[in-house]
Amino acid sequence: MKELKYSGEDWDAAFNQADDYEFCETDSRESAGELAGVVAELHGAEAGNDEGLLYAAITVAKGLAEEFDREFLGAVLNGHDQDHEGMEQRATGYILAKWPGFPIEEIGDLFTFGTKYALREYERVADDGSTGFRYVFNVSKLIGKE
User: Fold this and answer.
1) What Cα–Cα distance (Å) separates residue 43 from each residue in 51, 72, 73, 100, 108?
2) Burial 13-33 (b: 16+ CB within 10 A, else e)
3) pLDDT for the residue numbered 128
4) Residue 146 — pLDDT band, cuts 50, 70, 90?
5) In the prediction, which pLDDT does 29 show?
6) Percent composition of the chain: helix, strand, coil (DSSP 3-state, to 5)
7) Helix, strand or coil, per DSSP, at residue 81
8) How far apart are CA 128 and CA 91, in angstroms?
9) Is the Cβ–Cβ distance between 43 and 49 less than 8 Å?
10) Where is 114: in which H helix or E strand?
11) Concatenated DSSP letters for 2-62?
């Protein structure tokens, strides 16, 4: 059986509904509907109970497709690729390769620099929707760049 695809707005609403029920699969599904239950399930199963990661993955998925299913969103989540420190290291490497001797300490936010200048074509960045913490996702499998 093929999974149903939902719009990004539907996924956003389901995220908010699941959040209202503290991402409890049963409460979300029974009180807010099947999609809210799916979001709660993804929260625990694939996002490691990190609602910021799940929110960012929904944001990235919306940028890749108008409508998507659980499998697609799961693939985005599984593409979570880089932590904050990793992107800062990549930014530092990029700067040193392009401009040897550049005073790296003059750059206030290496993560932002890295996401602006050192991202690969198959990577996407999104924030958590509340604190501004950002996540990097490798979406090469979803855009055919693997």
Assistant:
1) 6, 14, 11, 43, 33
2) bbbebbbebebbbebbbeebe
3) 92
4) low
5) 95
6) 60, 10, 30
7) strand
8) 21
9) yes
10) helix 110-117
11) PPPPEEHHHHHHHHHHHHHTTT-HHHHHHHH-HHHHHHHHHHHHTSTT-HHHHHHHHHHHH
Q: What residues have CB less than 8 Å from 48, skipping those under 6 apart?
A: none
Overall size of the chain counted in residues = 146
- The span from the CA of 56 to the CA of 127, in Å, is 5
Structural tokens at position 81: 């690729």
How confident is the model over 1-54, as pLDDT tens digits? 567 899 999 999 999 999 999 999 999 999 999 999 999 999 999 899 999 999
Structural tokens at position 145: 């760049």
Q: Report yes or no: 90 and 139 within 8 Å, Cβ to Cβ.
A: no
**What are 123's two structure tokens?**
């990577």
3-state SS assignment for residue 127: strand
pLDDT at 2: 64
| pTM, two decimal places | 0.88
27 contacts 66 by C-beta, under 8 angstroms: no
